[in-house]
From TrEMBL:
Chief localisation class: membrane
Amino acids binding GTP: 132-139, 214-218, 278-281
Location of the SRP54-type proteins GTP-binding domain: 299-312
Protein name, as recorded: Signal recognition particle receptor FtsY
Higher taxonomy: Bacteria, Bacillati, Bacillota, Bacilli, Bacillales
Species, as recorded: Gracilibacillus xinjiangensis
Name of the coding gene: ftsY
Length: 332
């Protein structure tokens, strides 16, 4: 059985898997339409797998924002695999492409370890710090994750650490009301570290399970950004050893390669432990997921696949690849 058909079987075998795959199919519809059409067109034009086929495939993958470096690695891997399996028919390459896309995501970490969720603490407070530039959907992500965690039975508290952007505190407060979660806040212009400190004390006294902390996203001055985030992290570490348990960088998938450069800047400024990729449903360039993972070695932990409060999903690399190839599988 081909790798694609194994994915199809997995995501249609039980209701839970089917719900996950449907979310990815819907959320990746723009990327899939563009990607599938181009791959199918490529396969139709080339009966044989030769150097010209790989050159055109390279263009398709770069067009999906998989990233030049990642694409070159992938093409080399594909060439070796095609040779090893003695594949001549271009139709058979589709399954190998899907297999290698999953392999590129997992890298050398091994298939089980790399598909990790959030680093939640079992019997103590979990502190999650959110970083990212303005306008990427950081506050919305915090609100949606608060809803998700609360629906799992956890006691959640939010901290409005972005005291610089006009309206940031009000926006987080609105999300707090919407998902019925308390927000710890100071006035605009306050010291972010002081707000985070108060958030930690409140979380401790109220015996919260999770504290979600917003931060300012000014990239104009990298030194200031680095100093600000370092100060916030020092406050957290002093109050709770080994925290923050996650530093999640929120990126807007619709910005493509610009998201990759933001990821590089923030990973230089602080220890980013995972990526949240928002607005994946609004772009035809969903390949950025693979570029970030392959070029920076940072796992994508959450993805935004729609507008609804329930559309923030734990990232599943196999469901992602299935979402990319679903139309081709349906055609078969």
């Amino acid at each position: 059985m081909s790798f694609l058909n194994k994915l199809k079987e997995k995501f249609q075998s039980n209701q839970n898997n089917e719900e996950v795959s449907d979310k990815y199919k819907d959320g990746l519809s723009k990327t899939r339409k563009s990607f599938s059409e181009k791959i199918n067109d490529l396969v139709a034009r080339y009966r044989k797998v030769d150097e010209d086929f790989f050159e055109d495939l390279e263009e398709v993958l770069i067009g999906a924002d998989v990233g030049v470096s990642t694409v070159l690695d992938l093409i080399d891997e594909l060439k070796m695999e095609v040779k090893r399996r003695n594949i001549n028919d271009s139709k058979e390459v589709k399954s190998v492409i899907s297999e290698k896309l999953v392999d590129i995501y997992y890298g050398e970490d091994g298939k089980e370890e790399a598909a990790v969720g959030l680093n939640m603490q079992a019997d103590e407070l979990t502190v999650i710090l959110f970083v990212g530039v303005n306008g990427v959907g950081k506050t919305t992500t915090i609100g949606k994750l608060a809803h998700q965690l609360k629906s799992e039975g956890k006691k959640v508290l939010l901290t409005a650490g972005d005291t610089f952007r006009a309206g940031a505190i009000e926006q987080l407060s609105e999300w707090g009301k919407r998902v019925d979660v308390d927000v710890i806040k100071h006035s605009e212009g306050s010291d972010p570290a002081a707000v985070i400190y108060d958030g930690i004390q409140a979380a401790k006294s109220r015996q919260a399970d999770v504290l979600l902390c917003d931060t300012a996203g000014r990239l104009q001055n990298k030194v200031n950004l680095m100093n600000e985030l370092s100060k916030v992290k020092r406050v957290i570490e002093r109050e709770i050893p080994n925290a923050p348990h996650e530093v999640l960088l929120v990126l807007d998938a619709t910005t493509g390669q610009n998201a990759l450069s933001q990821a590089k800047t923030f990973s230089e400024a602080t220890d980013v432990s995972g990526i949240v990729l928002t607005k994946l449903d609004g772009t035809a360039k969903g390949g950025i997921v693979l570029a970030i993972r392959n070029e920076l070695g940072i796992p994508v932990k959450l993805v935004g696949l729609g507008e609804k409060v329930t559309d923030l999903q734990n990232f599943d690399p196999q469901a992602f690849v299935y979402g990319l190839f679903a139309d081709m599988l349906d055609d078969e």
